User: What shape does this take?
Amino acid sequence: MHPDFYLLPTFEKERYDKHSDDIEDKGYQNFVSPLINSVTTNYKTTNIGLDYGCGKTAIVQQLLQRKGFSINGYDPIYFPNTAPLKLTYDFITCCEVAEHFYTPFLEFKKLNQLLLPNGKLFLKTYLYDNTIDFGTWWYKNDPTHVVFYTKKSLEFIKENCGFSQLVIHNDHIILSK
Assistant: This one.
């Protein structure tokens, strides 16, 4: 999206405040479960993670903590303390956040730098491809969604932001350091 069309920060926060992020909502738990399952499959509770862009209720962070994981949260609006960004992590989750990046190249480079060697970035976002009619695509209607990804753009990110491997699943994406 051209920066002229970005929402003002107060309007952006108002939009986020309307999200119904209830940790006890089974539907939302199912929605984030691909990230939770991928983390618990690839890591032990002794590994440390970051929920980047955790939102007002930090659901992914809380669900992983319930499973015994040590995971910090960072969100520029709701949890703007940058102390977690001074550490490095075994894994990072980024659930429905990457489409909000104003500077995706810089964000992905930063996320890579926050990962320890062999670390993984677990993403959840909807990918665009040529089978989708952009004009009727529901995902573009959120005014806070400013960038969309394709398989090709993720391959570019892998190659140019320091990642060694890209795996695209139907319901989430993994970038490995």
